């Protein structure tokens, strides 16, 4: 009896202490004294366990508002403590939401993504506005940029699998802004292949791109070398005049850059000439007093869709045209188009029926956007409703032509450029500037060949070109070429400057050609009273000189950068990706073997396309063989001292997912080791969930150790090692 009363007294004392601690804890929380609240919570937890649901959630909330990461980490740990003791009912969605936002703001992306994933796992689905804010903070760090795409893909997959009436899940449906945030981050941190995969989830989630998304999409296609996608996009966006100026400028800059990556100077040249012809056509129509609508129709006939009115020019379109265009796009209560423009795909092959297609709605492309787009290299300017290629394109194309030893074709292209872009001074023509630059670089054969093309085309030649080429030949001591140039000058009736004669005489004296030196001396005496001009005013074919860097300077800068274009890698990767998407793996393997034998050297994009192709067919064994090829190629490159193949984090992530799906745990551990050695971020949650989904019951019921083979024992050891690495599974 005495024992019972003593126990009761202790219980009462404990309850009084617990009540007092709970009261103190609540007061500390209400006054936001986080540093006092946590020690009180620890005492209360030791005494009676967790406090009430209300107090516990308030403690998490007040910690979430703290700027000190120490209290945020404690709140994060508290959530896992509650989960470990299986008391999920104590946690409220609001508290977890605020904690998630607090962790993201404090640049703790791993912890923030974990809380977000736990909420989804426990069916406490955060609305799109919440998780969009979380990833907006996450993508400010490189680690967050790796996690944000994974979260977006997981949420899109969850939405596509949800039943139509499940409003709580559908409230998570991402909007265009969510995709914009992630795509922009992927581009900034170089996760370009992940960005392309994200685009494939847009139509699955029922999301249509807005203005900023369109521009980001174009950049993603350019970075991945998706030229066919850009061509398909060109056929669609040009059919509506409501595109914005920035969108046209970005799109055609990216398309031109893609042509240059492929080394397709013919396509790049034709695109540039199309823009010049269309701009000149519109300029002539406007000068003649024709309405803009007629100009648009004329340009459309020329298969070039650049002079369409922008948002500012739309008011100039005749009223009946604007009404007709408006009637083509009906809108519902949510201001979304019921009838979209043509779908943008990856090609017309029936083999590629699995491709997801992004739908473009021109009306949505005029919406204001909250994410600032990245400024890509601008190759095209948009002015007065016209697309005008700048001189940087010409410099890049000229470099590509000369790298392919196509100097005569370059000259013919530049002559067409000069004719199409309008009148300029002879010395400021594109052809003259490139020839002058070649002379300065010592590329005398190229310069002479291009000069011959100008003469053949009866194009007025600036006398300064002959002068610079002669001086270069004098320095190179090429008497035969000097004589040929002098014959051309005399035939054209041009007059050289006195300094050029002096250099030729000095060159003749240096090689002891006294007869030629005397002839030149007599010739210069005859012309001593002549006026020596740097240019011929009768050869004027242009307008005022630009105050910006001229073409010659830009070309010299391009050559100085010496960024050798390897067009083969983009063409081969594009072909291999086509085969893999169409499940034509035999053709993909042939192309890959050709790359290994003849070049160019495969890169991460090559390997990832093959891995995706094999994974789609469930052929994981071939991926193990491919992994061996990768390691051998890296070793061979390192031993030979050549450029080492870069196996980046995106490729390792794809490999690890594929090996886990196939159950190759030994190789999975090998990939994990390589990633850890190279300090690559590893999303353990993702791999742990993949293991639970596919191999949860693996080796739950095994034979006795004495009945297992050596291979089985090793396999079990590898599975246990992976489980230990991944944490509790």
Outline the structure in words.
By secondary structure, the chain is an all-alpha fold. It is 65% helix and 2% strand. The chain has a two-stranded antiparallel sheet with strand order 1-2. A two-stranded antiparallel ribbon has the order 3-4. The radius of gyration is 35 Å and the shape is elongated. The relative contact order is 0.05.
Share of helical residues? 55-70%
As laid out across the biggest beta sheet, the strand order is 1-2
* Separation of the first and last Cα atoms: 49 Å
Which class best fits the helix and strand makeup?
A: mainly alpha
Write down the overall geometry: elongated
The parts where pLDDT drops under 50 for at least 5 residues are 288-356, 366-370, 529-548
Average pLDDT level: 76
What profile does the largest beta sheet have? 2 strands, antiparallel
The count of DSSP E runs of length 2 or more, i.e. the number of strands, is 4
Strand content: under 5%
Radius of gyration: 35 Å
Number of helices: 34
Descriptive keywords:
single chain, 729 residues, mainly alpha, two-stranded antiparallel sheet, elongated
Layout: helices, strands, pairs:
Blueprint: H1 2-30, H2 34-48, H3 53-64, H4 69-84, H5 93-105, H6 109-121, H7 128-138, H8 142-161, H9 167-170, H10 176-189, H11 192-201, H12 211-223, H13 227-237, H14 245-261, H15 265-287, H16 292-301, H17 319-327, E1 343-344, E2 358-359, E3 380-383, E4 386-389, H18 391-403, H19 407-420, H20 430-441, H21 444-456, H22 463-476, H23 479-492, H24 498-510, H25 514-526, H26 551-561, H27 567-581, H28 585-598, H29 604-616, H30 620-640, H31 649-662, H32 665-677, H33 684-695, H34 710-726
Antiparallel strand pairs: 1-2, 3-4
Helix pairs in contact: 1-2, 1-3, 3-4, 3-5, 4-5, 5-6, 5-7, 6-7, 6-8, 7-10, 8-10, 8-11, 10-11, 10-12, 11-12, 12-14, 13-14, 14-15, 15-16, 15-18, 15-19, 18-19, 18-26, 19-21, 20-21, 20-22, 20-26, 21-22, 22-23, 22-24, 24-25, 27-28, 27-29, 28-29, 29-30, 29-31, 30-31, 31-32, 31-33, 32-34
